[in-house]
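FAQ
Q: What does a multi-component entry look like?
A: The components come first, one per line:
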Amino acid sequence: MDGNSAYDPGATWLIARVTATGGETSLTFSSIPQTYKSLQIRGITRRADAGSTIATDNLRFNGDTGTNYTYHSLTGNGTTASATWAGGATSDIVFSRGAGATATAGIFGSVIADIHDYASTTKNKTTRSFTGFDLNGSGNIYLYSGLWLNTAAITSITIYPNGNTIAAGTTYALYGMKG
Amino acid sequence: MPDVSTEVAIATTTLGSAASSIDFTSISSAYTDLRLVLVGTSTANSTVAYRYNSDSGSNYSNTYLYGNGSSAVSGRFTGSTQIFTDPTTSMSTTIPNLIEIDIFSYAGSTYKTSLGAFSFDLNGSGSATRNVGLWRSTSAISSISIYPLGDTFKSGTTATLYGIL
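Then the predicted structure of the entire assembly, as tokens:
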């Protein structure tokens, strides 16, 4: 074979990572390149304010705060499996669950979320996520599917705990996957 | 931030003979997350579990959710000596099962959380299991041992460890 082997840079690329310093009400990935086929969000999360024992982080796209989202979930709480629905159009997608502020220090929840065809301008956007946390005696595991009823390409993603605050050390990374 | 090629295969192994465990050692701390993918069978239909850094103390726990074709069930293990990939179903001796384990911030100073999936279908039985695991240690993970309890993985079982930046 003539010449050198083709350089294969791999199919998965880190676009950006954000780590909370504590007390934030949102984290945002902006100016997302449109050159990938899919996006993946990986992260660990914990809630800062003591209002709940569970951290709940939600997604919004392109700054859209309208009731243009919905989601379903399958949950295991260590005793019972259950299924829920957002109940109708909502203003965000629940996608990541973690430990609350009162959990043992150092415990975070984790999440892997996928958004395929995010750059399409003809398709509404579907998300899926696998998330959960274990506190050695309690904890939940979740599978979510979400929908953004909008055909616009996703150029920004906002992660926010819906009126609560994010704990220091919470980290989300955005990856692009080549098609 | 410029694109950085992200997912790297750190190590891979395919068993040439039955083995009681597959071990990944001297894991570089250069990545953010780890991903272990195993496809294989066991000799005697045993549950598969994993440990970090040879820690066999009661420092693990996990919450699970599974469907077995007729019901959906959730349960948990507390104060365990390992994390079970599928606590209710044993690995097939004939048709390969798929195990995927994502380990987050493995080199950081927090307790270590993992998300796991155990999947198999035997054309009449099978299950889909998801679990979240916890290792109550702030040590960086430098080794992972995965094994069928009291059993061996069969020859041909393959496992790959990926580092994710």
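Q: Is there any commentary attached?
A: Sometimes. For this entry: The CA atoms of residues 45 and 170 of chain A lie 4 Å apart.
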